[in-house]
Design brief:
Signal peptide: 1-17
CATH topology of the domain at 88-206: Jelly Rolls
Number of helices: 9
Family: Belongs to the germin family.
Order of helices and strands: HHHHHEEEEEEEEEEHHHH
Number of strands: 10
Protein name: Cupin type-1 domain-containing protein
CATH superfamily of the domain at 88-206: Jelly Rolls
Helix content: 25-40%
Distance between the termini: 61 Å
Largest sheet: 5 strands, antiparallel
GO molecular function: manganese ion binding
Bound molecules: 2-acetamido-2-deoxy-beta-D-glucopyranose
InterPro entries: Cupin_1 (IPR006045), Germin (IPR001929), RmlC-like_jellyroll (IPR014710), RmlC_Cupin_sf (IPR011051)
Structural class: alpha+beta
Length: 265
């Protein structure tokens, strides 16, 4: 018995010795699951499911055909699988791309109180300061490394800053302002879960600037002008570490530092 246990232990150690090799490509004879497109009629599906009186009714509506049989094959995967691969193609001139699920694009969520997203960063990419009005967020780094920060609220308005390596994770409170930043010259990726099927997102600066000039002006301590030519005046009101970090990262990676108003390329 003892030797059998030892042999099993030795096998386990052997298996651990090559933990990463299997991740890039499946072994011979094993094919990767096929891509899944987001349903084009997702809103229609979600709208029909939302009126179902119980969760069982919602799942039956989503997962069975009109004869009451559970869907199979591609038809089943089209409902149960959200595929982020197609979103790993950031538009030119952006620092990366992100997609977060919600019932209007992934109707399966209509039967749950959770959603999730994947964020792909290019070098020095920044997921700009934002908040999720209806969900706490739990994220785990799945490629590279990132830096994150959040500020809770008045009376605890201190930046809580974390550095996350591969497969390290952290949490952001619901409605707390936060950002994620890739401080390296390589790509980075995180996957996140949010405890609401429709957590929402509000970009802070973008949406703050929706208020009238006069309101913005007073709130920003009345800078003489508001525009690209006084970006440093703006910066003193923005998270200092982040602004410096972005410029420093771009320079270190040999990427051009954008002039005011431009997006890093
Ligand atoms: C429902 O699925 C079952 C099992 O796959 C199949 O036999 C049946 O024809 C399907 N019904 C409809 C209306 O598609
Ligand atoms: C980085 O990500 C881009 C997509 O944004 C991809 O085209 C490129 O191959 C990735 N580079 C590496 C080294 O993985
Ligand atoms: C902002 O306030 C300053 C100081 O009162 C004033 O000079 C400037 O014109 C104001 N700008 C706007 C857009 O209201």
């Amino acid at each position: 018995m003892y030797s059998v246990a030892l042999a099993a232990f030795a096998l386990a150690m052997q298996a651990q010795a090559v933990p990463f090799e299997g991740r890039a490509a499946p072994p011979p004879g094993v094919t990767s699951p096929a891509p899944v497109a987001l349903p084009t009629n997702a809103v229609e599906i979600a709208s029909s499911v939302i009126t179902a009186p119980t969760n069982v009714d919602k799942l039956k509506a989503l997962l069975t055909n009109s004869s009451g049989d559970v869907l199979t094959g591609d038809a089943l995967r089209a409902v149960t699988v959200m595929d982020y691969n197609a979103y790993n193609q950031p538009a030119a001139g952006t620092g990366g791309s992100i997609l977060v699920g919600s019932p209007d694009i992934f109707p399966f969520l209509e039967a749950f109180d959770i959603s999730g997203g994947v964020c792909f960063f290019k070098p020095c990419g920044l997921n700009i300061p934002h908040l999720h009005p209806r969900g706490d967020e739990f994220l785990v780094v799945t490629e590279g490394q990132i830096e994150v920060g959040f500020v809770m609220e008045n009376n605890f308005a201190t930046e809580i800053h974390s550095q996350l390596g591969l497969f390290q994770s952290t949490v952001f409170p619901k409605a707390a302002m936060h950002y994620e930043f890739n401080p390296t010259c390589n790509n980075a990726t995180f996957a996140a879960a949010l405890n609401n099927k429709d957590a929402g997102r509000s970009d802070l600066i973008t949406n703050f600037l929706k208020f009238p000039d006069s309101i913005v002006n007073v709130s920003m301590a009345r800078p003489i002008t508001i525009g690209g030519d006084n970006i440093d005046e703006w910066r003193q009101f923005l998270p200092v570490n982040l602004a410096a970090g972005v410029d420093t990262c771009l320079q270190a990676c040999g990427l051009s530092v954008p002039t005011a108003g431009a997006i890093p390329s």
